[in-house]
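lol so apparently i was supposed to do this last week
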Amino acid sequence: MSGAGIGSMSRRELLMMIGAAAGSSVAYRAMASLDMVPESDYKGPIKLEGDPKGASVLILGAGLAGLVAALELRKAGYKVQVLEYNQRVGGRNWTLRGGDSYTELGGFEQKCEFDPGLYLNPGPWRLPYHHNAILDYCKRLGVVLEPFNQVNYNAYLHSSKAFGGKPQRYRHIQADFNGGVAELLAKSTKQKKMDQLVTKEDREILLESLKGWGALENDYTYRMGLESSGRRGYDHDPNGGTIGKPVPSKPISIDEILKSGLWRYLVHGHIYEFQTTLFQPVGGMDMISKAFAREVGDAVRFNCKVTAIKQDGHKVTATYVDAKTGGAPTQVSADWCLCTIPASVLSQIDLDVSAPMHDAINALPYEASIKVGLQAKRRFWEQDESIYGGVTFTDLPNNMIGYPNTGYFGSGKGVLLGAYTFGPNAYEFTALSPQERVKKAIEFGAQIHPQYKDEIENGIAVGWHRVPWILGCAGAWTEEKRKQHYDNICRIDGRVLLAGEHVSYIPAWQEGAITSSLNAISRLHQRVVNG
Ligand SMILES: Cc1cc2nc3c(=O)[nH]c(=O)nc-3n(C[C@H](O)[C@H](O)[C@H](O)COP(=O)(O)OP(=O)(O)OC[C@H]3O[C@@H](n4cnc5c(N)ncnc54)[C@H](O)[C@@H]3O)c2cc1C
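anyway here it is w/ flavin-adenine dinucleotide bound
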């Protein structure tokens, strides 16, 4: 997607707006998309043709980048071994269910108390329709997908400083913002104030389009009536029989909407990655890594904390210790090494590569982020407020509430995403104990859903900057850093090369991890077969 020509709004202004609405990571991802950035150009299963003649590859890290490499390299005839810090595969592709426990940096241990069948995806939770590689692996490995609802017109937009703190339905803000802007533009057009910008013929077309887009009346005003209620909803919905007559609802004035700041959130669903249709695996995001484990789990050595990576002209040797108990270092060697350990951790490992690659690894910062999952005794957001999936946005520090996109109309319990936030808010959450983080998320959420106080019964909080094997949410490239370091982080450095979301133009997405891995192993394979 090209960044050029977004009306008169500069690229920077658009990014600032996205940042304000959706947090810095989304702004960053949008930035990536606005730059010439190749979205995934995945065209189908990789073909590694030619005989690797028994060459061996040591893969470090069993996140999606490592798993994809293990699967494809083994298929192509390589001897493959994977060293993984955790006791499971998947890395950030992770799902928490009742009975799971998790210990963060500093020692806080949390036990997930969700009821059977309920889960939280503390990391990835949605798959855009154009992330072709991950969707293809899901298809090939039999991972069943269901729709993920990003924009829900009946969820809320909330500002603690506007409308007396009362949450507003998304559809009201959306319809009234469009209607208000359309009316203003129509007025300017009719008053010939746009004449320098549009031709006479286009003026009529513009007026017609504003009428349709903004639900304007025949006189080009946006006001209470059946037109506007056809977008924002009615005070009394159309119905059957004697009580069927609809009662229109009263729009909020454009002035109030502009002052409320809630318009900021409307951009979210227009961002390429969040456009309909998105998907999620049925049963939790880790259904994907579990599917990979069925194929290549036997190649993974678990609980291995890599502490050093050395190379000479013939081989690469990794040193690791038991991730839980430490103990004596063990060494393992191979002809080549594909390292998918996040740069945030890799920068602290004794790594034998060139200075430019070291500089690239050290230059890449990682973002802070936290997600809090909350178990409710009943699905009150559905039962009381007709909210089925999607997201509510708020200016409170919990930033958003995500409603489960599955199990609709269930009469049992449900798990909400009670907070998903970045930057300073994330640090403030993790300055608290996990129990206090959950309490805070309840306190904030109760300002939108008062039912929280009676209905939420437990929760779990994952602050990514405190996850020992990643120390952040995702690599946060800036344009400048990319110019300086990206080529160096991609190079084959002696016998070592890197892969992972941080070695891609789709950072913070699983598609980036997979496509970077496919690209890395293609280049490695060329080197191996061509000598
Ligand atoms: C909060 C959050 C939300 C996200 N949302 C989405 C989303 O909705 N959709 C989406 O597609 N993506 C999303 N992502 C991004 C996605 O999770 C990542 O891009 C992707 O999973 C990264 O895969 P990877 O293989 O590059 O790295 P990882 O999954 O991090 O794998 C790296 C592996 O290296 C291991 N490791 C680390 N240190 C060592 C060591 N010393 N020795 C041995 N092994 C080690 C780790 O344990 C891990 O298994 C999200 C991420 C986060 C954190």
